[in-house]
Automatic annotation (TrEMBL):
The chain crosses the membrane at residues 93-113. InterPro entries: C-type_lectin-like, C-type_lectin-like/link_sf, C-type_lectin_CS, CLec_Tetranectin-domain, CTDL_fold. GO terms for molecular function: carbohydrate binding. It comes from Branchiostoma belcheri. The gene is LOC109465025. Gene3D superfamilies: Designed four-helix bundle protein, Mannose-Binding Protein A, subunit A. This is Low affinity immunoglobulin epsilon Fc receptor-like. It comes from the Eukaryota. Residues 1-59 are annotated as: Disordered. Residues 219-338 form the C-type lectin domain.
Amino acid sequence: MYEQAEPVRSPFSGPDSRKTSEPPQARPVRQSGSRGRVRHGNGSSEDQETSSHMYEEAEEVKRYATSADGAYPGGASGRRGVCSFLYARRSSLAAGIAVLLSLGAVGLAPLTFSNKQEISQLSNTVEVLKREQDGMRQLSSTVDGWKRDQDDTRQLSTTVDGLKRDQDDMSATVDGLKRVQDALKRDLDNERSRTAALEQCLHEIEKALPPCPEGYTLRRGTCYKAFNTRKSFNAAAVACLADSGTLAMPRDAETNAFLVSLYKSLGDGWSFWFGLHDQREEGKFEWVDDSALGTYNSWAPGEPNNYGGGQDCVLYAVVLRDKWSDNDCRMRFRFICQTAPGRP
Ligand SMILES: [Ca+2]
Ligand SMILES: [Ca+2]
């Protein structure tokens, strides 16, 4: 295929360079080996030979490619020659491409490595900043909590101040109440002293009084007796008059309690008339000496009820726990009389 190729001279072609009239000889295709490798530094004679052959072949291809008709001499056979030529040099072309890619990789590797380092450092910095941001957020939350605690403390302080003022006011009130209590105690002591003096005086007077009629008991200058006989209200009043007295008139709680204890000394379970009635005007109770009932009373619950329309006389109702009850004056009950000392 190289029969028509123009001979090419090369400074490394050696003695064969003189055979210009002879067509170039086809070279065997080399897949690999020292001729296909790229070497740097000192070139050996083999390397120089390889470079010479490559140069010559490149010149041949260049001439055919730049010819007027763009065709390799010989037409289709020429194109086949180019393809054959490229195919035969594929190992060399591959080596060249590999060299270029290696150079590119070698040149890009430091840059890529540097970028990776910078990205890694930047990523680390971002992580650190994120952690610091989280820390700042936590710190901000803590500060907010402290502020709220501070506000609560201020409110608590205000509340404590208010409580202190209230305590001072209460202390002043308590002091005033203590003074009033002390004054009342003094008054009570005075009253007790006066009462004791009066009791002593009354006792002295009672000792000077004549005695009560037989069967009567003296209490605060009056003689009382519970009769163990049953009479109507009016008959009982007549019996009391026989001792120059009347039915008993308990005008206060102490006298009322005394009379209850007096008739219970006769026995439990009996009711007793005493000197209260509304015989002159319904609902208007008065004592047998015609004096008004007054403020004190000891009515049983629901009494007086004038039950049946005919209850005008009052008794101690044993079934009502010794409380007062109006009843029919004609009924016969035991009774209590009172009289003055010295009377027969
Ligand atoms: Ca009545
Ligand atoms: Ca009644």
